[in-house]
Structure formats: structure tokens, C-alpha cells
């Protein structure tokens, strides 16, 4: 199948899927199920690209397994988190902010998810359409990066789920496991996952285009729909979250800053 036709078909399918999801949320008044749908459909785009692409077999297998496994795991996690629960506070806040215009603006928001998915899907389409194959060291680096990303995100999700499930932790900040070193380790590993396709595509035709997905994902999470919206709520709903923000890296896992270092830096005179 020609690249343009496959890319357009995937986009149309996403628009239809997200439009149906939007109609469902009109009835349920719960927009949160867009999250597992987004992960599942993007994983299916990876499988689709691998199935119809004319690229080398190893490229297509890597895309199908990497993108498909990532999408299935994340979709299942998000479904378990959101199904049967009240609407995610982020979406509830948007609905309240938009007021009478909530319905059309939510549709625009859903369709923007489809556009974002297509930017991310560049990571799948480039290798799936390339008859050239990466060098062995790049294959190893890409596979190691992808595996580390999936395992790391799975561990971070599991640690947070365990923290929330304990009644003793109600209203408290999770600082165990990866959450000791990053306020959003799941976001970091999510962005890292997209770097695996960039490594795989080094030297392939149009391989430079696969730089867009990891940068786009990091930008969305850090500047748009991830950290800003989430932390605006957490500073009011989690005891000690402001201090957690001062001592803990927002994104890249890093040893936490000691409290005494924070106070010393505040007392140090500035030139």
C-alpha cells in the first residue's frame, strides 16, 4: 500500500474512533475513557503499519511488537484505572471551565488526540516503509531502550497503584520506587519509549523524522496535558506536594535534593 494512502487511512480510522468516543462521553459525562482508547488505537496503528508497509521484515516485526505491546499494556493499565471511576479531575476541570461550550470543545480536544497520534505514528511508518535495515549495534540499543522504557513505566504504574490502594496513604505523596527520583517517572519512561524508534531508524531513509515523536511526547507531557494540569491539582490535594516539587526532579529520574541543601541555597546571598 502506498505510504500516503496508509497514513490517510490510519488518520481517518482514528477520527472515526475518537468521534464515537466523544458521542459516548456526551451520554456518560465521563471523558476519561479517551485515555485507554488513545493507547489502544495507537498500538493498532503500529500493527497496521507493520502489516501493510513494504519495508524489511525485521523493521516491520519490530514496529508491530514494539508498538503493539506498548499500546496493549498502557491501554489495559489505563482501562483498569479509569473504568467505573468518576471522571478524571483534569477532564472535569475542562468541562467546568468550558461551560456551555464543553461539547464542541471536547470534540476538538478528542480530534487533537487523533492528530497527535499521527505525529507519534511517524515512529512506526518510517521503519515499516524502509527496505534498509539498521546496523546491529543500533538494533541492540533500540531494543534495550524500548524494553527499559516499558519495564520502567510498568514499574512506576505498579508502584503508584500500590500506594493509592493503601488507605494509610490517602492524601499523601507517593515517594516509593521510581517516584522517589522523579515526580513523573511514568511520563519519563513514556517519552523514552519513543526514542527506541529513533535509534532504530538512524541511517534509514527519512529516519530524521522519527525525532518528532519523542520530542512531541515530552512537550505534550511537560507543557500541555501532563505535568501542568496534574500538578495544578496535586498541590492542593496532596499534603507536602509543594515540598516534593522543590526536592524532586519533575521528569528525569535523579537523586532527590536534600532538604538542608534547599534551605542553604535559599539563604545563600545572590551576587
Automatic annotation (TrEMBL):
Pfam families: DUF1295. It comes from Paraburkholderia bannensis. InterPro entries: UstE-like. The chain crosses the membrane at residues 6-24, 36-52, 107-129, 135-152, 187-209, 215-236. One of its GO terms (cellular component) is membrane. Keywords: Membrane, Transmembrane, Transmembrane helix. The keyword Transmembrane helix applies. This is Steroid 5-alpha reductase family enzyme. The keyword Chloroplast does not apply.
